[in-house]
Write a structure and sequence with these properties.
The complex is a heterodimer of chains A (250) and B (105).
Chain A lengths: L3 H109 L7 H16 L5 E5 L5 H8 L7 E5 L8 E5 L6 E5 H7 L1 H13 L12 H6 L17
Parallel strand pairs in A: 1-2
Antiparallel strand pairs in A: 1-3, 3-4
Chain B lengths: L2 H102 L1
The chains are: A alpha+beta (250), B mainly alpha (105).
């Protein structure tokens, strides 16, 4: 057994040790809790960051998808619309072309039948004089030929021209539609004044006249005063170049 | 309290503290895993919504274009009809002008 004083010291030491041990116990747990709280807090912060980044990325992805969708939608729209609009534009052009060609055929028909009209004599004279003037000689050889024109009557008309002109009446229509071809006596120079040749020379003007008359595009029928702007404003016609088939072929 | 008892108690406390930290780590892992899952869900959901919107945009665009194309067809049909009438009304005048041009040109 300890003496009283030493016993007192011993209890004091033990009490202090117990107290220190309690403090140490609390301190260890407190540190651990603090560390645990830090770990959780850090995880929550990280979690918050992950979600924010994810939302931002999701927004960017969505914007990207919608942006590409917008381009794709426009492309689809253009593809559907442009092909249909192109097809319709083609239908319009084909119809206009068909109409103009039909009128042109009618013009050719009327010209080839001119011998049956009262315009024939004056027309023949004008064609002959123009051709002779173009050849530039008083001794021109003029060959004429029209559908439905009798050779005899052509010959008699030939007598009304100046004497130097040699008048040859053909049984068949020149260049299918009829007309006149003048040449010098040697045949070195000639001028084709057939209807077909005249149509070829007037091709653009003729088509413009027909088109503007039918569709009322405002083009001057003479075709002499078309401004570039007005020409551009008129829709183009497909295949306007004629193949010049005879109107009697069909 | 004996020294052994004190050491035993400290060891227990350390173990307890370690457990607290381990629990916190587990909880942190859970939080992060949950966040990761939630982030994935957010992105999936956003992408799915955008894809849905995209499909709708394409459908609407196609429908609108087809409607416009039908309008173009109707307008073209009307225009062709007008051309036919114009042709019937003016073909003789046009042919006459053409003949006059060829004869007098």
């Amino acid at each position: 057994m300890l003496p009283p004083r030493r016993a007192l010291n011993w209890f004091w030491v033990v009490e202090k040790m117990a107290e220190s041990l309690g403090k140490l116990h609390n301190r260890i747990l407190s540190d651990a809790r603090l560390k645990a709280a830090g770990i959780v807090e850090q995880a929550e912060e990280k979690s918050k960051q992950i979600l924010e980044e994810s939302r931002a990325q999701a927004q960017r992805d969505a914007n990207d998808i919608l942006s590409r969708a917008s381009l794709e939608a426009e492309s689809i729209r253009r593809s559907i619309l442009s092909s249909r609009v192109r097809a319709n534009r083609l239908r319009i052009l084909e119809e206009k072309n068909r109409i103009v060609q039909s009128v042109l055929k009618s013009v050719e028909q009327r010209l080839s039948d001119i011998a049956r009209t009262d315009q024939f004599e004056s027309t023949l004279k004008r064609l002959v004089l123009e051709a002779v003037e173009a050849v530039g000689t008083d001794n021109a050889v003029v060959k004429v030929g029209f559908r439905n024109a009798e050779r005899k009557s052509l010959q008699s008309l030939g007598q009304t021209f100046p004497k130097g002109i040699k008048f040859l009446a053909d049984e068949t229509a020149i260049d299918d539609l009829g007309g006149v071809i003048a040449s010098d006596p040697d045949g070195k120079m000639s001028f084709n004044n057939s209807f077909k040749a005249r149509i070829e020379r007037l091709d653009n003007q003729l088509l413009t006249t027909i088109s503007s008359t039918i569709f009322q595009t405002g083009d001057d029928a003479s075709g002499q005063h078309h401004s570039r702007k007005r020409r551009v404003a008129q829709p183009p016609l497909l295949c306007w170049k004629r193949t010049y088939d005879s109107p009697h072929d069909d | 309290m004996s020294g052994i008892e004190a050491v035993r108690r400290i060891v227990e406390t350390e173990a307890q503290a370690k457990q607290i930290v381990e629990d916190a780590k587990s909880k942190a892992e859970e939080i992060l895993a949950r966040a990761s899952q939630e982030a994935q869900n957010v992105r999936h959901s956003s992408t799915a919504e955008a894809e849905q919107r995209k499909a709708q945009m394409l459908r609407e665009s196609r429908e609108k274009a087809e409607a416009d194309a039908r309008s173009s067809d109707v307008e073209t049909d009307a225009l062709l009809e007008t051309y036919k009438k114009l042709f019937e009304d003016r073909k003789d005048v046009a042919a006459k002008k053409g003949v006059e041009l060829v004869l007098g040109g």
